Amino acid sequence: MVSSFISPLLLSLAACLPMAGAGNPGFVVRLTQNGLDYARQEGMRVLQQELAKIHIPDFSGSTHTHLGKVKYSFNSMTIRNFQLPSSQISPVANVGLKLSISGAFIEINGQWHVKALHISTKGGFDLKVEGLSISVGLKVGSDTSGRPTIGLSDCSNHISDVKIHVSGKLSWLVDVFRHNVDNALRKAIENQICPLVSNAITSKLEPLLQTLPVTAKIDSVAAIDYSLTGPPPVTADYVDVQLKGEFFELSHRTTPPFSPPTLTLPVDHSLMVYFGISDYLFNTAGFVYYSAGKLVFNVTDNMIPKEFNIRLNTSSFGVLIPQLSKMYPDMLMKLQISSTLAPSLNIKPGNVSLSPKLDIQAYVILPNSSLAPVFLLNLTTTAVAKVTVNSGRIVGNLDLSRIQMDLKHSDVGPFSVTLLNVAVNYYLSQVLLPQVNQILNKGYPLPLLDKVQLTDVVLQPQQDFLLLGANVHYGKAENSTWVNKF
Length: 486
Ligand SMILES: *[C@@H]1O[C@H](CO)[C@@H](O)[C@H](O)[C@H]1NC(C)=O
Ligand SMILES: *[C@@H]1O[C@H](CO)[C@@H](O)[C@H](O)[C@H]1NC(C)=O
Ligand SMILES: *[C@@H]1O[C@H](CO)[C@@H](O)[C@H](O)[C@H]1NC(C)=O
Ligand SMILES: *[C@@H]1O[C@H](CO)[C@@H](O)[C@H](O)[C@H]1NC(C)=O
Ligand SMILES: *[C@@H]1O[C@H](CO)[C@@H](O)[C@H](O)[C@H]1NC(C)=O
Prior knowledge:
Elements: H1 7-12, E1 27-32, H2 33-51, E2 59-65, E3 68-83, E4 86-92, E5 96-116, E6 119-142, E7 148-166, H3 172-209, E8 215-217, E9 222-225, E10 238-243, E11 246-249, E12 273-278, H4 279-291, E13 296-300, H5 314-318, H6 322-327, E14 333-339, E15 345-348, E16 351-354, E17 357-365, E18 371-390, E19 393-410, H7 421-442, E20 444-445, E21 452-462, E22 465-474
Antiparallel strand pairs: 1-10, 1-12, 2-3, 3-5, 4-5, 5-6, 6-7, 8-9, 9-11, 12-22, 13-14, 14-17, 15-16, 16-18, 17-18, 18-19, 19-20, 21-22
Helix pairs in contact: 2-3
The chain binds 2-acetamido-2-deoxy-beta-D-glucopyranose (5 copies).
Residues 311, 313, 315-316, 330, 332 line the site of one 2-acetamido-2-deoxy-beta-D-glucopyranose.
């Protein structure tokens, strides 16, 4: 529960240096005023605990009165209550964030001890430090690993009043040196506040920011680079954290042959955080898996549901292509389906689709297990993608809407490809697609800090990017599911 200081903030602090090569980020996290306010609330809880660690030193002194020299000491002071009832946070364009705390108060108990002439007396006191205001400037940046950073750029504080109430015999004596007590306490407290604020930032907030998964490993092939492209730009209304948002191949990283589009996030800021997920993220995924040779699938007869009567063998196919069963009587077949181009996602307002180009190479499996190529089809398909968010992951599901197919090459003589429509449609939609969807259903992780969950998720395809808006909940992971379809 410790590390909650300004968690959503961290999200958005991720960063955007305009210097890093290709310019545009592939992924933007926008923290709105609502998000900053939520972060502030969470942060205040932590800060309150930190500030309650103020150590109030014993102090003593002497003063001259009409009774002669009076020696006093105050000791055993403990903080009974420390409240930060009112605070504000606001982004300051091109600078960072400003946190203002006002009306804070501290209640302290302690013991006093006075010696005057031959009298020695003591009692207890209650002290209330009122009207404590703290002003904190925060600078946001990024480190060399591409993680967001936050630091104190300035800090000041002021106490408007110290009220002391003493009890015990001769407590009136305390009035004599009330002024000294007041000054000593102010100084002791004022000197400790900014160092404690600074400590809260380095010990609680910075470590939380360091939990940004700048490299999110997906599988044995690829990972997503979520590092900041530079220090987050701050405007008067929001903080944008700009991330690379790029898939890369773990074994050898190459530069994708295309760059991210410009993302223009809408001005609606009613939710705490908005993610702009550009088509670049998805297209680099397509590029990486295609380049790694992973977009190749085999279909064999044992994968085809029992109830479907066009089996993947030459007897079955021989009904459609008689030459096939003549050349290879009653043998099993195998299809190799491969993407002939890196697939790319087409994101438009209200619609996410892709049009992969596929080749299907058909083989006959000979009795000695070697493969004899029999024909090659080329296909253009259109698939509509449903994208949702589930437990902090972007999850997809494809639906095939159209298949066009041509015979590219035949080793068994010419035949009409339309005869194969029913079979190929079935194999693609009932055998290949479920495999692809199984992968897409696992999804990709969003760049979230530890213990940050998204609620009230809204997902909207915009031109060239997905806009994901959400509120943030910081706390123990509950593994709740938030799904939003469009
Ligand atoms: C598909 O079949 C080919 C040829 O038999 C084989 O080399 C390849 O490893 C198979 N691919 C998969 C993903 O099973
Ligand atoms: C091919 O499929 C037919 C059903 O269409 C079946 O009767 C036959 O046994 C199958 N042949 C092989 C080799 O699996
Ligand atoms: C989405 O785009 C696909 C491909 O461009 C198209 O077939 C489909 O009708 C579109 N759907 C909507 C709701 O616009
Ligand atoms: C398998 O059988 C075919 C045809 O009978 C032959 O051409 C091929 O060389 C054989 N392959 C192996 C690996 O034995
Ligand atoms: C198949 O490939 C040929 C030649 O490359 C091309 O002209 C044709 O449009 C392709 N057909 C489909 C359905 O993609």
